[in-house]
UniProtKB/TrEMBL annotation:
<dbReference type="InterPro" id="IPR035669">
    <property type="entry name" value="SGNH_plant_lipase-like"/>
</dbReference>
<dbReference type="InterPro" id="IPR036514">
    <property type="entry name" value="SGNH_hydro_sf"/>
</dbReference>
<comment type="similarity">
    <text>Belongs to the 'GDSL' lipolytic enzyme family.</text>
</comment>
<protein>
    <submittedName>
        <fullName>Uncharacterized protein</fullName>
    </submittedName>
</protein>
<dbReference type="InterPro" id="IPR001087">
    <property type="entry name" value="GDSL"/>
</dbReference>
<feature type="signal peptide">
    <location>
        <begin position="1"/>
        <end position="27"/>
    </location>
</feature>
<keyword id="KW-0378">Hydrolase</keyword>
<dbReference type="GO" id="GO:0016788">
    <property type="term" value="F:hydrolase activity, acting on ester bonds"/>
</dbReference>
<keyword id="KW-0325">Glycoprotein</keyword>
<keyword id="KW-0732">Signal</keyword>
<dbReference type="Pfam" id="PF00657">
    <property type="entry name" value="Lipase_GDSL"/>
</dbReference>
Length: 381
C-alpha cells in the first residue's frame, strides 16, 4: 500500500513538469505584447533558406533537396530539418508568418521581419578562425556579416522609420557558437584550447546584442547551445570506449559539460548586459534545458526512447550518421516524429516543436506577453 501511495505521489511532479513545460493554453488574441515583427540571426539551427541561395554554397548544403522538408512543407525549403525549426514556432506563437530568408530576392514580403541565419555561420569572423587554424566553409556568413545584412535590410525596407519597427520587434540572436566549437573540435583542436574561445565568442555575441539595442531593439532572445553530447554527429565523431563516458540517455557527458560551460558564461554575460540596459528586455533561451527535458520525458512525448541519439536521416554506423542525409545511400526513418536527431547535427520538426514550447512558455511572460495566440506552435498538447 505504501509503495502504491509513493508511486501515485511521484506521478504528480512529473505531470506538473510536463504540463508547465510542454502544454500551452489557447486564447483568442495575443495581449499586451505588441510584437509585430521578428528578426532571426544564427546558423543552420535557424537557417530558413539563406544558404541555398548563396552562390557556390548549394553543393555543400544538403538542405536544398529531399528528404529535408518532407514532413511539414512536403518539399525542401533550405531548413535543416524534416519540417519546421524553432524560429517557425516562435513566429507562430507571436501570430506572425514564417520568416522569409533575407537572400530570397523573388519579391517575398519582409514587412514583418526577416531571417538572416546561414548554415555554417560562426560567431567569430573568418580572420579569427584562420589565425587559429580553425576550418570554416568558404561561404561563411559570420555574425558580424549578418549584422551588416540586418542594417542594410532595415534601411532598404523601413527607411528612417526602422527604429520604430525595432521597438515593436523581437530579435533572436542565435544560437551562436555551435559551429565554431564543432569546427574546432572536429578539426582536432584540444578541448582546453577550445575552452579559451568561449569568452571571446560570448564577447562577440554581447557586441552584436549591443549593436541591435543601439539601433532600437527592445526585446532580445539569446539562445544557448544544445547539449552537444546528445547529437548523433558528436557521438559518431568522438566515440569513447569507456561506458562511464555516457549518461543514462547515451549522451557523451564531456561534450555536454562543454556546452554547459558556454551556456553558463552566456547567462552571466546576459545578466551583466541587462544591468547595463535596464529598459531593454533580454531573455536567455534555454535550448539546452528544453532538449534535455525532451530526453527525460521522451516516452510521454511520443518519442522512441531507444532511438534518442540515433539520426532519422543518414546511413550506416551505430547512430545512422556514417553517411550524410540527402545522399544516394540515405536511409530515412518512416516515423520522424518519434526521433529527436534528424541528420546528426540538427533535429526533427517534432523535437524542435517540443523544445520551442519550453522556450516560448518561458519567454513570453518576460516580454510582457500574457496571452498566447491560437497558433500551430502551441496547439497540439
Amino acid at each position: 500500500m505504501a509503495s502504491l501511495f509513493l508511486s501515485k505521489f511521484s506521478f504528480f511532479p512529473v505531470l506538473i513538469i510536463i504540463t508547465l513545460f510542454f502544454h500551452s493554453s489557447h486564447c483568442d488574441v495575443l495581449t499586451k505584447c505588441r510584437i509585430t515583427s521578428l528578426f532571426q540571426f544564427g546558423d543552420s539551427i535557424a537557417d530558413a533558406g539563406n544558404v541555398i541561395r548563396i552562390p557556390g554554397a548549394v553543393i555543400s548544403a544538403q538542405a536544398w533537396g529531399l528528404p529535408y522538408g518532407e514532413t511539414f512543407f512536403h518539399k525542401p525549403t533550405g531548413r535543416f530539418s524534416d519540417g519546421r525549426i524553432i524560429a517557425d514556432y516562435i513566429a507562430s506563437a507571436l501570430n506572425l508568418p514564417f520568416l522569409n530568408p533575407y537572400m530570397d530576392k523573388s519579391g517575398v514580403s519582409f514587412s514583418q521581419g526577416a531571417n538572416f541565419a546561414v548554415a555554417g555561420a560562426t560567431a567569430m569572423n573568418n580572420s579569427f578562425l584562420a589565425e587559429r587554424g580553425i576550418g570554416f566553409v568558404p561561404f561563411n556568413v559570420p555574425l558580424p556579416s549578418q549584422l551588416e545584412w540586418f542594417k542594410s535590410h532595415l534601411q532598404s525596407t523601413y527607411g528612417s522609420n526602422y527604429a520604430r519597427t525595432l521597438r515593436n520587434s523581437l530579435v533572436v540572436m542565435g544560437e551562436f557558437g555551435g559551429v565554431d566549437y564543432w569546427n574546432a573540435l572536429a578539426g582536432n583542436k584540444p578541448e582546453p584550447e577550445v575552452r579559451t574561445y568561449v569568452p571571446l565568442i560570448i564577447d562577440g555575441i554581447m557586441s552584436a546584442i549591443k549593436e541591435v539595442i543601439q539601433l532600437g531593439s527592445t526585446r532580445i532572445l539569446v539562445p544557448g547551445v544544445f547539449p552537444f553530447g546528445c547529437l548523433s554527429g558528436y557521438l559518431t565523431r568522438f566515440p569513447d570506449t569507456n561506458p562511464n563516458a555516457y549518461d543514462q540517455f547515451g549522451c557523451l557527458k564531456f561534450y555536454n559539460s562543454f556546452a554547459t560551460y558556454h551556456n553558463t558564461e552566456l547567462k552571466k554575460a546576459l545578466e551583466n548586459l541587462q544591468c547595463e540596459f535596464p529598459r531593454v528586455k533580454i531573455v536567455y533561451g534555454d535550448y539546452y534545458g528544453g532538449f534535455r527535458l525532451v530526453f527525460r520525458y521522451a516516452s510521454w512525448l511520443g518519442f522512441n526512447p531507444n532511438t534518442l541519439v540515433s539520426a532519422c536521416c543518414g546511413s550506416g554506423g551505430r547512430y545512422n550518421t556514417a553517411g550524410g542525409c540527402g545522399t544516394p545511400s540515405t536511409n530515412v526513418c518512416p516515423n520522424p516524429s518519434q526521433y529527436v536527431n534528424w541528420d546528426g547535427l540538427h533535429l526533427t520538426d517534432e523535437a524542435y516543436h517540443r523544445i520551442s514550447n519550453v522556450v516560448i512558455n518561458n519567454m513570453l511572460p518576460k516580454f510582457g506577453c500574457y496571452g498566447l495566440g491560437n497558433s500551430s506552435a502551441m496547439s497540439s498538447y
